[in-house]
Write a structure and sequence with these properties.
The chain is globular, with a radius of gyration of 20 Å. The strands form five sheets. The protein has a seven-stranded mixed sheet, with no helix packed on it. It has two domains: 202 residues, Jelly Rolls (Sandwich), CATH 2.60.120; 123 residues, Jelly Rolls. The chain contains two helices and 25 strands. Strand 20 and strand 21 form a beta hairpin. With 332 residues, the protein is mainly beta.
Length: 332
């Protein structure tokens, strides 16, 4: 295994600026979408996939300038966002008028399948969201009817197979292909109405993270762990947060103080490490790499790994693992 094949640095992310049907809608035309791990849900076949190894979940990202909006839609799996930087409003409802909640750096939100959602960078500068979608194949996006109407004005046509036709580039609908019908009233009715107050039930702010020193990983000096997404897991010592329903994956936060170390261990699931704050030195099967803010690293199953904070500042990482009840780490 080459460690470089498992590493996606923030500075090396390759965006797609026309990944979805709303790519030319005013207010949405400046967004960048990233598929870090897995096929993602992009409707443009030119979307670059950094790591295609199946994990049981997908890792993506969205980078948007101030005022840029991602249009109302829903997914066939759970969708989790970590605010890496920027100030973001998440908006519920097929017409973007059910609810709205503002999140800031480090906050996390888990949006269930049956909620129309959009999100907007309401800060003063560039913003970035780290995203997790369930399943190896998260399926297609369900768009609000208004998105189809706007896309038609700008020459974009979505097909039933989830691919996008850009008529402004001379593309035509292939023979035998069918155009995706506008989302019906019956399909819209399957979605929940979630107001602003109720949206508090699907978010955790950084000040409310359930940090613990009683988990299997946090028994080492200077280490704390918080279970953020998924049910409790006794063998890991994880107590569930309010985002405790089954997702098919779990998300944990790890905090390492200066000089802290988690010694050599293995895991039974691939884990994706996303560095939110600081720099983390990891050793995987005797290969060393330093991860910086915004970097993603996926550690192979059964590989021996060690985490070190060799800096003088606190490090915070978010870790995603397959399954609702991962096995406990095995220390060497």
């Amino acid at each position: 295994m080459s460690i470089e094949n498992r590493l996606v640095r923030y500075k090396d992310l390759k965006p797609c600026t026309n990944a979805f049907i709303d790519t030319r809608s005013p207010g949405s035309d400046k967004k960048e979408n990233f598929t870090v791990i897995g096929p993602g849900v992009a409707e443009n076949p030119d979307q670059h996939v950094h790591i295609s190894i199946p994990h049981g979940f997908n890792i993506g990202g969205a980078r948007q300038p101030a005022g840029c909006l991602n249009s109302q839609h829903s997914h066939l799996t759970e969708e989790v966002f970590v605010i890496h930087f920027g100030d973001w409003d998440f908006i519920s409802g097929v017409n973007a008028d059910d609810g709205r909640i503002r999140l800031h750096k480090g906050d996390i939100i888990s949006i269930p399948m049956d909620i129309f959602r959009g999100f907007e960078n309401v800060g003063q500068g560039l913003g970035y969201l780290h995203a997790v979608l369930g399943s190896d194949d998260p399926g297609r996006v369900t768009w609000a009817p208004s998105v189809f109407e706007m896309a038609k004005e700008y020459g974009l046509v979505l097909l039933e197979d989830g691919s996008l036709v850009d008529t402004t580039l001379g593309e035509t609908i292939p023979d035998g292909a069918k155009v995706m019908p506008v989302t019906s009233k019956e399909e819209i009715a399957k979605h929940r109405v979630v107001g602003s107050e109720a949206m508090n039930d699907i978010i955790i702010r950084t000040k409310d993270f359930p940090w613990s020193t009683d988990t299997v990983l946090s028994k080492y000096a200077g280490v704390e762990e918080a279970g953020l997404v998924g049910p409790s897991n006794e063998i890991e010592g994880i107590v569930a947060s309010k985002l405790n329903w089954n997702h098919g994956f779990v998300v944990r936060a790890l905090k390492l103080q200066a000089g802290a170390q988690i010694p050599q261990h293995t895991r039974s699931e691939e884990e994706v490490i996303f560095v939110h704050q600081g720099t983390l030195d990891i050793i995987v099967d005797d290969q060393a790499v330093t991860l910086s803010e915004g970097d993603n690293f996926t550690t192979p199953i059964d590989s021996v790994r060690q985490f070190n904070n060799n800096s003088e500042a606190e490090v915070i990482v978010y870790i995603t693992r397959r399954g609702d009840h991962p096995q406990a780490p095995v220390f060497i």
